[in-house]
Amino acid sequence: MEYKIKDIKLSDKGRKQLAWAEAHMPALLYIKGELSGRKPLSRLTVSAMLHVTKETGVLMRAIKAAGAEVYLAASNPLSTQDDIAAALASDGIHVFAWRGQSDADYYKNIRIVLQKRPQIIMDDGADLHAAAHKMGLIPLGGTEETTTGVTRLRALEAEGSLKYPVIAVNDAKTKYLFDNRYGTGQSTIDGIIRATNILVAGKCAVVIGYGWVGRGIAMRLDGFGARVIVVEVDPFRALEAVMDGYEVMGIDEAAKFGDLFVTATGNKNVLPSKVFSKLKDGAILANSGHFNVEIDVASLEKIARAKREIRSNLVEYALAGGKKLYLLAEGRLVNLAAAEGHPSEVMDLSFANQALSVVYLKEKHRSLENRVYPVPDETDEYVARLKLKTMGIGIGAMTTEQKRYMSQWEDGT
Ligand code: ADE
User: Fold this and answer.
1) Do the domains 182-337 and 8-175+342-390 match in fold?
2) What distance in Å separates the CA atoms of residue 342 and residue 275, rounded to the nearest whole number?
3) What average pLDDT does the structure give for the chain?
4) pLDDT confidence band for 1 (50 / 70 / 90)
5) N or C: which end of the chain has fewer CB within 10 A?
6) What is the pTM of this model?
7) Which CATH class for the 182-337 domain?
8) Ligand 1 pocket mutation, candidates 79, 95, 123, 351, criterion most atoms within 8 A of CB
9) Hey, which of 17, 53, 188, 332 would you mutate to test ligand 1's pocket, going by the most ligand atoms within 8 Å of its Cβ?
């Protein structure tokens, strides 16, 4: 077995976590059962770069059960749960990941999983796809889990440089409507509370970005009793935030009010250095976007007179004049670095799409071009129906008369 992890002795602990996750991921388990019967991925190598959590563990086991040889690296230096890495390594999955790995090790592990010349690449953030392109690898196809990764792959496609078909798992309705909104909404608050143990009620929380992730975070902060301000540069989204009941303003204005700032834009320096001088003493800064580029941490490091760790994932920066700012999880995605990522129930949906998309690529790659494809509608709908079924929820269906009415134009009032 090839692997590089923190400590294989953690595997018993990890196995219990995996069992707990499996108990909350019935849709993926159902798909795993079906795939392990027919083994559509036999003789294939799959290299994945995902957050090494218990939910990812359940997905990797499903891909292995479908017949593949699986290599796994971490899609963030701080998101690996070492007990899960150990359990997977002892179950025959080649894991190259440990919490707190250096940036150099992060890239080294990418190279290791790509040197296995995978037929399928599964990614979260598109660093693995980017590296595959730089190494000249051309697998049958790949999947991409997150908004940031899909944006990067669309840029590669627009440039005419995408070398294999990729399925944008993020863009499935059964992904972004649930994982991005309810998953990030809950896990971000979880990370903030684990890192700080602050009372959210009565705080002024500034959410920067009002995509699906920002919406989920704003909704949950509101539920906890925070006064929520939204900062959003897109006029449609800003208007939606207003009508969802939030205050909306520019970052320079919001800077004066916020006790807590959460970035969720996918973009760079949305909490830029020029804003730091305007922030209140004691302001807490957290990021929930994929990469650690949203808060200008490098400038914060430069202007700080002193820095000390208060507790795990909470660092105090003392600025000239005595003001203190508090950065969570180094500005890396707080929900995975300071908590455990999205709960299993929601990852059940996302990873059901991942598993089915990998099989789809294997079976259909000959008919696909080098483009970014959506998850097929039938797959998306299948996942929604399967999830409802596992929840014991039955929904009705249109009558024949209703179906006919919905597909005609002649009848009005
Ligand atoms: N992304 C967000 N939450 C996650 C989780 N629990 N596992 C894997 N990837 C995630």
Assistant:
1) yes
2) 30
3) 98
4) confident
5) C
6) 0.96
7) alpha beta
8) 79
9) 53
Residue type present at position 64: K
What is the residue-wise DSSP string for 201-228? TT-EEEEE--SHHHHHHHHHHHHTT-EE
The arithmetic mean of pLDDT across residues 196-221, rounded, is: 98
Alpha-carbon gap, residue 301 to 299, rounded angstroms: 5
Cβ distance 6 to 82 under 8 Å? yes
* 342 CA closest ligand 1 atom index: 3
Continuous H helices in 269-413: 273-276, 297-303, 334-337, 344-364, 377-390, 400-406
Angle between helices 344-364 and 11-22 (to 10 degrees): 90
CATH fold group of domain 8-175+342-390: Rossmann fold (3.40.50)
Tokens of 215: 């919406």
* Assigned token pair, 149: 């990764």
Section 251-271 average pLDDT: 98
Contacts of 315 (CB under 8 A, 6+ apart): 307, 308, 309, 326, 327, 330
For residue 307, what are the CA distances in angstroms to 101, 102, 312, 321, 361?
22, 20, 14, 14, 48
